[in-house]
Design a protein that fits this description.
Distance between the termini: 83 Å
Shape: globular
Number of strands: 12
Structural class: alpha+beta
Order of helices and strands: HEEEEEEEHEHEHEEHE
Largest sheet: 6 strands, mixed, barrel
Helix content: 25-40%
Mean pLDDT: 81
Strand content: 25-35%
Strand order of the largest sheet: 3-7-4-6-5-8
Radius of gyration: 23 Å
Number of helices: 5
Length: 262
């Protein structure tokens, strides 16, 4: 009888272990964490915004996770929001995102509950004014108090790895279609501005604007949105000159610079 009971206990334990293994079979580890031997991601470039049609995967109009319903936006144009960002790392590295791509925690990517996939988003840490541009290609985070999940690399650039979360502002960089940009350049009617940096400290940006105007002989403007100020050089009429100056600025201490066409 004792031997029979012992066999029953062993059998039950093996069944439970198998169930536990099957529940976590999608991921290599049970709990998320930072990589144990990460490469230097401090120089990882921002995602480069460009026109991309929304993918077939991950853009179902309505979906349900953990009993809660979510609705995907038709377009990210004009989207701005403030909230809490978190980050996700080694547990999900190498696994498929919601739109069928492979998650790379060393790239500038992110997850959002309702933005169409893919979307390009400028994320600013409101505590230190550090900014990154990420490409949203996944769904999440599925916590009521969190707005966006950032890749390990993006979280590193925003200096939020130790805290785990950060108060951020989000702004979608929306590009309607490639034809509109091309036609504007052909007609020579487009005006180009170079976004340099964003900050809640306008005085700091005004001083930097004067310095850059003298150095590069280009006018500047400071634009405000939701108490966040953005320093931009321009307008520049020629796209070629604007692109060249953007690359120069990236190499001379402003790696987050990018071009805006109006």
């Amino acid at each position: 009888m004792q031997r029979t009971n012992a066999l029953a206990v062993i059998l039950l334990a093996s069944i439970l272990a198998a169930c536990s293994s099957s529940q976590n079979s999608r991921y290599d580890i049970a709990d998320d964490k930072a990589p144990t031997s990460a490469p230097d991601v401090s120089k990882v470039e921002d995602a480069h915004p460009k026109f991309e049609p929304y993918s077939r995967g991950g853009n179902k109009a309505n979906y349900t996770v953990l009993g809660k319903n979510y609705q995907v936006m038709d377009s990210g144009e004009g989207y701005q929001e403030k909230g809490i960002a978190s980050w996700y790392g080694a547990k999900f590295h190498g696994h498929l995102t919601s739109n069928g791509e492979t998650y790379d925690m060393y790239s500038m990517s992110a997850a959002h509950k309702s933005l169409p996939l893919p979307s390009y988003v400028r994320v600013t840490n409101l505590k230190n004014d550090k900014t990154v541009i990420v490409r949203v290609n996944d769904r999440g985070p599925f916590h009521e108090d969190r707005l966006i999940d950032l890749s390990y690399a993006a979280a590193h650039r925003l200096d939020m790895l130790k805290t785990g979360t950060a108060n951020v502002s989000l702004e979608v960089i929306y590009i309607a279609n490639p034809e509109s940009i091309a036609l504007a350049e052909l007609k020579g009617t487009a005006l180009h501005f170079i976004q340099i940096v964003a900050s809640s400290n306008k005085t700091r940006l005004d001083l930097l604007a004067n310095e850059l105007e003298k150095k590069y002989q280009v006018n500047s403007r400071v634009q405000e949105s939701n108490k966040l100020y953005r320093l931009q050089l321009g307008p520049i009429g020629q796209a070629q000159l604007a692109n060249k100056l953007t690359e120069t600025l990236k190499q001379q201490g402003y790696p987050q610079s990018y071009l805006i066409t109006e």
